[in-house]
């Protein structure tokens, strides 16, 4: 008698888009829970095969850390989650399918899902200002930090050979647009690095150097409050950083960085940190959005599309206690990710989902060598202690013990020895329009 062998049950497919804080920490929770179930398949799609610890990106640009110190390979981090290195080309919420592209030939592959977690972060917003996207540098990726470091060193080399004072002055003028965390930390690291490096260029004078921070608000670091913002401005000013508050950049041309008052700052370097926007791939989705971000319920699920979730910078997450939404910061993305993963597991197991609640514990920023500002649970700190606090907290949050040890050793050596002034190949300045 022939007995028909029953077909194996279809696996529950969980697809995570994005390998930043939101995507990775959701994947890590699932890696320890349902990803070990043979009836569940969890896949993470990211354009890079590593997680980048962006809070330390400016330290790579300034040479305090190496390129590999702030990245952790996803394949070594995840044991049971399948990883795919690819770009997200399209998301079909109706057909429950995602199209990804990969490889030099941009091959396409379609992935079906039962549960979809969107954690694609954000992209730089250039606000369609003429020349800014084409000519400026950004500070969102490892390549950005590499390019900025090479740009600074390359311009120092060229300026040391320039005979005309105006040409030399333009080469040694560095402008950062945006007075938030990324802009302030970048300007502080940039200023310290260039001033320290200039000691080794005897033909250059400090009077040739100009470092400018352009910010549309009245005080930088508005997230930390006016008092800490003004403290940061004062400290940067003592380090000869020029603060152009209540000023907007309107373009970047051959004349230099153009400001709304008609002035043009002659420079070859504009670092743009003045805005972000959700990824373009999300703009065609049929779900509700606010300012381009996907609106989710307090359980982090997208209303009207069961099994679809969103966290991090690309999600608009209500915060009823504060009467607003949760901010797009790393500490929120991390906790949103874990909470979302728990709700996803509860849904698969037929259990009740829980609403997400979290209050910001604090915010910190460095404003140059051995100086920082911090607001921790309502208490303000500044100076050396805030800088030490910044390093201690972010070192603790860095993924993997190996990376923590490497960074701790690098920081210790940095106290004893100056940074290397090596301009990495290719041996040329990456032009203002050739960095993208």
Structure description:
The structure is a single chain. The chain is of the alpha/beta class and 436 residues long. The protein has two domains: 12-47 and 86-122 and 278-348, FAD/NAD(P)-binding domain (3-Layer(bba) Sandwich), CATH 3.50.50; 132-276 and 362-416, FAD/NAD(P)-binding domain, CATH 3.50.50.100. 30% of the residues lie in helices and 25% in strands. The chain is built from eleven helices and 28 strands. The protein has helices at 21-32, 57-61, 74-77, 132-135, 142-159, 165-171, 181-197, 226-238, 330-348, 384-397, 401-416, and strands spanning 12-17, 40-46, 50-52, 71-73, 82-85, 87-92, 97-102, 107-112, 115-118, 123-124, 137-138, 173-177, 210-214, 241-244, 249-253, 256-259, 264-265, 269-272, 276-277, 289-290, 293-295, 308-310, 315-316, 318-319, 324-325, 362-366, 372-376, 379-383. The strands form nine sheets. The protein has a five-stranded parallel β-sheet, covered by helices on one side. The chain has a five-stranded parallel β-sheet with strand order 11-18-12-13-14. A three-stranded antiparallel β-sheet has the order 6-7-8, with no helix packed on it. It is globular, with a radius of gyration of 23 Å. It starts with 11 loop residues before the first strand and ends in a 20-residue tail after the last helix. Mean pLDDT is 92; it is low at 1-7 and 427-436.
Under the CATH scheme, the architecture of the largest domain is 3-Layer(bba) Sandwich
Strand order of the largest sheet: 5-2-1-9-22
Determine the fraction of residues in helical runs and give it as a percent range.
Answer: 25-40%
Q: Regarding CATH, which class of the largest domain?
A: Alpha Beta
Question: pLDDT average, as an integer?
Answer: 92
Counting structural domains, the number is 2
